[in-house]
UniProtKB/TrEMBL annotation:
One CC-aspect GO term: mitochondrion
GO molecular function, one term: ribosomal large subunit binding
Gene3D superfamilies with a match to the protein in the record: 3.30.1360.40, Ribosome-recycling factor
Transmembrane segments: none
Name of this chain's protein: Ribosome recycling factor domain
UniProt keywords, alphabetically: Protein biosynthesis
Biological process annotations from GO: translation
Pfam families per UniProt: RRF
Keyword Ligase: no
Keyword Calcium: no
Length: 281
């Protein structure tokens, strides 16, 4: 601020013009304190530096918050994992794991499939056993001709008698009526070739074949029993093959279950054979 002597100020007249007043002022030095000024560039530099400091502080605070947030998440995820581990432990104690349950189901399914096959072999042998027993008692049945196969002239396919003729029973004889008389001789030869115990076919006319079925002798019954024993062994072999096929799929996992089913149907076949021996002895 400007410094003016007091005397000079008092001598000034308020009504005098400003120029005259200034002219009458004494030539006393005026002291003006130095004031620090800033250029536009300096102000910008200062403000920029301050902005950077503010941004740096904000970034620092943001980084700290982010680190705290990540640490909190890790802590939470770790707690969740521990809870899941505890749940898994509880699950394993309470129930069988899903993978093991699937293996158990697969084993049970394969054992069931093998059992169905084995049962089929046992039932087939049961039918053959009953036919032999009926035949040993002198009963006439058309099922005695079921095993016969005929190959017609100029063909390679094997056909059953029921496909090319009808079979009926009259007294103690089987009567075969052929559809095509040109096939009569071929069918008769096929019956001879089958070598059925006590059965000898003969043609009565161009389309009819008669097979007299006498009451079987002791040698006939012995032959029937021998044939049944062969069929029994074949049936048991089929049962064992069914077991081996399932073992290749399951490995050792279902060995005990498969063996149990195998033993069941093997004993069943042996029991049927034992019954036939008593009937045909």
């Amino acid at each position: 601020m400007s410094f003016l002597p007091r005397l000079a100020l008092r001598s000034l007249s308020v009504r005098q013009p400003a120029a005259l007043v200034l002219a009458r002022l004494p030539a006393t030095p005026v002291f003006v304190p130095a004031v620090r000024t800033f250029t536009n560039s300096a102000l910008l530099q200062a403000s920029g530096q301050g902005g950077r400091e503010v941004k740096a502080k904000k970034k620092s605070k943001g980084a700290i918050k982010l680190a705290e947030k990540i640490a909190s998440k890790k802590k939470g995820s770790k707690a969740v994992e521990e809870d899941e581990d505890d749940d898994d432990d509880d699950w394993s104690q309470k129930r069988t794991p899903r993978s093991e349950q699937i293996e158990v189901d697969n084993t049970a399914t394969e054992v069931k499939k093998a059992g169905i096959k084995m049962k089929g072999f046992s039932q087939w042998f049961s039918e053959k056993t009953q036919e032999a027993i009926d035949r040993g008692r002198g009963k006439v049945s058309s099922s005695a001709l079921d095993s016969i196969r005929v190959v017609l002239p100029k063909t390679t396919n094997e056909l059953s008698l029921s496909a090319i003729s009808t079979i009926s029973i009259k007294a103690n004889a089987l009567i075969i009526n052929v559809f095509d008389e040109s096939h009569t001789k071929t069918i008769e030869n096929a019956i001879h070739k089958a070598n059925l115990p006590g059965m000898s076919p003969s043609s009565t006319d161009a389309r009819t074949i008669k097979i007299t079925v006498p009451r079987p002798s002791s040698s006939d019954r012995a032959s029937m029993l021998k044939n049944l024993m062969s069929l029994a062994e074949s049936s048991k072999q089929n049962v064992r093959q069914a077991r081996m096929a399932s073992m290749k799929i399951l490995g050792k996992d279902g060995s005990s279950e498969l063996q149990e089913v195998t033993d069941k149907y093997t004993k069943e076949i042996d029991g049927l054979l034992g019954k036939a021996k008593k009937e045909l002895a």
